Amino acid sequence: MELKKLFKVSEYEWEIPPRGEMRVPGKIFASKKILEEMDDKVYEQVCNVACLPGIVGASIAMPDAHWGYGFPIGGVAAFDPEEEGIISVGGVGYDISCGVRTLTTPLFKEEVEKELPALIEALFATVPCGLGSEGKIKLSPSKLDEVLVEGSRWAVKKGYGEWEDLEYTEERGCMEGADPSCVSREAKKRQHRQVGTLGSGNHYLEIQYVAEIFDRKAAEAFGLFENQVVITFHCGSRALGHQIATDYLLVLSQAAKKYGIPIKEKELVCAPIKSPEGQRYFKAMLCGINCALANRQVITHLVREVFEEFFPGRAVKVLYDVSHNTCKVEEFEVEGEKKILYVHRKGATRAWGPGRKELPEKYRSVGQPVIIGGSMGTASYILAGTSEGEKKAFASACHGAGRTMSRHQAKKRFRASDIVEKLKKRGIIVLGKSKRGLAEEAPEAYKNIDLVIEATCKAGLARKVAKLVPMGCIKG
């Protein structure tokens, strides 16, 4: 990206002054190095989003931003429903509520290393993964409706987890207002055996250890200590979320024409938040979030079953569950006035600062855990949200390393066997359902996670709490 097109606010914050039809400035949080290597399409998409009706503050991109459909992946935008604000499929993405959950254990790295090969094999056999993967839970449309309304609460009620888990899940495991009648029969049909499955692509399940603590107070609140073994997994709403997005792209395309909304890119199709079309998509999208939350809750139960076999009586607890493909109704202060906004986060993680009532009481004094997954074979991080980030970026942070190479490019350049062997030499066991999937997810296809985290924290969006290093990884 050409720096001359940007105004430098600070070392880690850059602005695109409004021009043409832009209603607000663009804002990119990144270091000079990250910006120079960032796809020019990100600049274009940030500007396009800034032209949408009812946008508030700025069109924002995170340090891990890269080209996406409509919105950049790593994009954040808030819309005011009282000012003709819109809701957009492109601002949420196809994998609705794709997110990350970290589980803590009382185990030390040395204890788990002895059992690691067998443990990874057991998890690989127990947690369904891969393209089109199906689990043991088979749901009729009416039973699936319960999942879409209740989210993680449905899973816990059915015995897949503990009530305490809900306290450490965004929205306490359930988005109110979800309406299954807004979800197509096709979407429900595709999901009937996918609750409790990882899926494919960049989804994973990883056994990690805490390599470094940066913030003792926050780490203690989160239940983290050095050399502790944790489990992190990344997945979303599977086929249901994808079908909801596919269905509503057509609906919102027609709505954009109906309401005369000018759009710069076909994937930015949208509808006024208060319109019937906008509300139908919003209620369907909430169903997608609840489906993803239930999915991650069932996987939590499966992981616990495996760990109980290997380490009886050693409790596996939920640290936190965060999504990064959502649109949520939140209150923020804008130019001295409190406003209810529809905040789109596509490839961006919500990051509440300290004191927020939405947080578990245990975390309220230190801020929300922000789980940032690295690429296969590199570190992941636990951050904490900040009050500064609430003001600068509508309480948002990055969500991962961010791709620098397309899946097609990575597949041509890397071989799965080479990746597995290279990681094995570093003591990391990798099991995958697909050679193609492993090649597409080569660590070299992603940005340097350490630089992305540095930019996120130096920009004030979050602060570092702990660094997690992989021991074993399962990929779809």
The number of strands is: 19
The number of domains? 1
Computed Rg: 21 Å
- Average predicted confidence as pLDDT: 95
CATH architecture: Alpha-Beta Complex
- Low-pLDDT segments, ≥5 res: none
What percent strand? 25-35%
- Number of distinct helices: 16
What distance separates the N and C termini?
A: 33 Å
What is the general shape? globular
Helical proportion? Answer: 25-40%
* Biggest β-sheet description: 8 strands, mixed
Provide the CATH superfamily: tRNA-splicing ligase RtcB
User: What fold name goes in the CATH topology slot?
Assistant: tRNA-splicing ligase RtcB
Query: What is the name of the CATH class?
Result: Alpha Beta
Q: What multimeric state do the chains show? A: single chain
What report would you give on this structure?
The protein has 476 residues and is an alpha+beta fold. The relative contact order is 0.18. The protein has a single domain (3-475), classed as tRNA-splicing ligase RtcB (Alpha-Beta Complex). Helix 4 (116-126) crosses helix 11 (276-310) and helix 5 crosses helix 11 (276-310). The mean pLDDT is 95. Strands 7, 8, 9, 11, 15, 16, 18 and 19 form an 8-stranded mixed β-sheet that branches. Strands 1-2-3-4-5-13-12 form a 7-stranded mixed β-sheet, with helices on both faces. A two-stranded antiparallel ribbon has the order 6-10. A hairpin with a 2-residue loop joins strand 1 and strand 2 (13-16). The two termini are 33 Å apart. It has 16 helices and 19 strands. 34% of the residues lie in helices and 26% in strands. The chain is globular. The protein has helices at 32-37, 40-49, 109-113, 116-126, 141-150, 152-157, 163-167, 185-191, 216-222, 238-258, 276-310, 387-393, 407-413, 416-425, 435-440, 449-458, and strands at residues 7-10, 13-16, 26-28, 55-66, 73-79, 86-88, 99-108, 204-213, 228-235, 270-272, 317-323, 325-334, 337-346, 349-350, 369-372, 380-385, 396-397, 429-432, 462-475.
